[in-house]
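Quick one: structure tokens for this chain, please?
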Amino acid sequence: MLIRTATLPDGSQRDVRVDGESIAEVARDLDAGNERVVDASGKRLFPGAIDVHVHFRQPGYPHKETWVTGSRAAAAGGVTTVVDQPNTDPPTVDGAAFDRKREFAADSLVDWGINGGVTADWDPDSLLSRRLFALGEVFLADSTGDMGIDTELFADAVDAATDAGVPVTVHAEDATRFNEDARARDDADAWSAYRTAEAEAAAVERACEIAADRNARIHIAHTSTPEGIDIASDAGMTTEVTPHHLLLSRKDLDELGTLGRMNPPLRRESRRRKVYDRVVDGTVDVIATDHAPHTRAEKDASIWESPSGVPGVETMLPLLLAEARDPETALSYERVRDLTATNPAAVFDVPQKGVIEPGADADLVLVDTTETTAISGDTLRTDCGWTPFEGFEGIFPEWTMVRGTVVYDGDSDEPFAAHDGQNVRDADGELL
């Protein structure tokens, strides 16, 4: 394929030639050969997004999401690589559990990675011998799956992963800082009042201290507070922010109800704005979704009984592109590229991904930024059938390509092509 006159995220116009699974050339006025030519005039071409934080729920909870439905949602949203977290059933805490999850991941339409988890019963020798994307998210407080661990075991896990050359990601909340008085409430805001901002900041600080003592680097998942972001950044660690912590706050909970319950929870509007500022100015390294689907029936419970988590893998890039299109925001298309593709590839050492350069994997997303679509849970591909971003505007892909194959074509009656995603850790990781 030759993609003609595409506007890249930096605003420059280039032709992009795809040969097999890779990008062959990026230049002006390339001569067309015996290939399909796509006119991309007036449209933008992005490297495929790398969502380093999803929960596709297999094995154990296929009624919430499967690798088939989750990867289709990813492709329809411009995500070409997903990284699944360990809190499934069984949890991915040993080699056998990794091998079982890998069998489900073989159904993925997009490329993928699998993270390993840490519990009191984990088997680091067998787990770390597998082709893990990372160790984590390591839970410092219980969330879905009840995998919270103490700091002593966390320190041991950091040692083991560092020795094995495996990155570590952290779910940082300190349960001793939760506000037990909030337990007397039953309104939608009670969950945010309970799992406090101070609990996140304290856990981020402790995790960074442990990593620094070992000359190790960790990645703080779904940071929801400016305090947590600053602590990690000052310690030389990397951070991610979710679209829901970027665009939603406690003021939205009256409308969202229990659909707005997640861990860590939504924060005050003043904190959300400061998180947004840190996303724009480069302090935050990565945007990832923490895509954690539950059915509507499961979420239709009290604030204390509803499961935590929201879907997001299909709406991340469309929401960010709509933000970048809005002249009222300071978010640029280049920053969207960095947050969703280039930086995740760099942070987690996946050099064949995240860039539009010769030799890189041909993971590409074509969008028309002049057209926005109202987001509706009824039309999304995720099995749970709802979104916390109902009614938000998004810019969705015209098509999404994974290693040279157009896996999603929004204009087709049959939008999804047959394609076998692969473990990105199985690739040699070297650009041509």
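The two ends are 18 Å apart (CA to CA).
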